[in-house]
Amino acid sequence: MIRHAVDNARWDVMWVGKGKRIIVKEFDEDLVGAIELYMLVKKAKKPMATLRCCNVGFRPPDKYYDKMVAYNKQGVWWCPYCMELRRFEKCLHAFDDFGDAYAIDPEYRCPMCDITHTDWHVIRYNPVAKRLRDRRGARKRSSKGRKRRGKK
Prior knowledge:
With 152 residues, the protein is α+β, with helices and mostly antiparallel strands.
């Protein structure tokens, strides 16, 4: 099953270039080519060099998996696409198709691949993300609504 997922996976190599701009080189399903460039980028000591899978989320290694709650409490989450522990950044706004900013509920995003804490794979491997999602979905009933239903 894992072999099939990796066979259909799309790969990117990412790193931070001059001016803190994220540079992305896409490799589609060519994992060997992506690994070769990733090794060159790592050897050149480019900041935040990352081999990222675009469409498949990966489980953290066992050495991290058991300690994930402790990492999450420190603000460090497992990014299943970058396959690394990352400090997700809090984001209070988003941009529409025209580039205009608008307010949203607070989101946490991976600084490299920009995936949010509401993604299924992020929730699956980060217990704090699951709690945030569950808390966000819970709605309080107003006291007026209860009184209205009781008066009938």
